[in-house]
Specification:
The chain is an alpha/beta fold. The chain contains five helices and nine strands; from the N terminus they run E-E-H-E-H-E-H-E-E-H-E-H-E-E. Strand 6, helix 4 and strand 7 form a beta-alpha-beta unit.
């Protein structure tokens, strides 16, 4: 799990290209060792992207962008202004390469959680790094509120075995959060800023 919040240069590179179709749109993504979901688009991210509503617009943050699937999909489908952040330098390099490969113009930059986030967004969309532990995970998800515009929405996916039900309950302490859909144990949650 070296891709979580680290830049381990000792992880040997092994880039692979994947042809992916999401919601009727075609993409080519390059993945690599040391980056989340090196085997291509993971089921949780696909479930999240296919559950997103048509009304998405404005400025969007792809938090923990990895090789860039979420932000690149969002740009292609919604033509919004997209910022993509990660702390993993290999992820950022791949996201940049994949943005070019898929002919989308997005802004990609490094940020340790919200350290380099200087504005508020209409939407924050993430497949969050569950394995960082509950403390950091909650810092990411609860802290998103400070970077959402009023009535802004946090969209995320989490597996039921990774505490989805508890997380939904806890999110409702500071957001208006609801379960949008479930698919093979993955919960897609929308948390609206009050």
């Amino acid at each position: 799990m070296s891709y979580y919040f680290s830049n381990d240069e000792s992880v040997k590179t092994n880039k692979k290209d994947h042809q992916v179709n999401i919601a009727g749109l075609s993409f080519v993504f390059t993945t690599d060792n040391g980056v989340f979901s090196k085997k291509g688009l993971d089921f949780g991210t696909r479930t999240l992207l296919e559950a997103l509503p048509e009304y998405i617009s404005g400025e969007i943050l792809d938090f923990g962008c990895g090789y860039g699937a979420i932000g690149i999909f969002l740009k292609k489908k919604y033509q919004c202004e997209i910022d993509m952040v990660d702390i993993n330098k290999r992820s950022l390099a791949l996201a940049s390469k994949n943005a070019s490969k898929n002919s989308v113009n997005v802004r990609i930059f490094e940020s340790n959680i919200y350290e380099n986030i200087k504005k508020e967004y209409d939407f924050i969309i993430t497949n969050p790094p569950i394995r960082v532990g509950k403390k950091i995970l909650y810092h990411i998800l609860m802290g998103a509120k400070e970077h959402l515009k009023v009535k802004g929405e946090l969209w995320l996916v989490v597996h039921k075995d990774q505490g989805a039900k508890t997380l939904l309950k806890d999110l409702n302490q500071i957001y208006d959060a609801e379960l949008i859909t479930k698919n093979k144990g993955f919960y897609v949650i929308c948390a609206k800023r009050r």
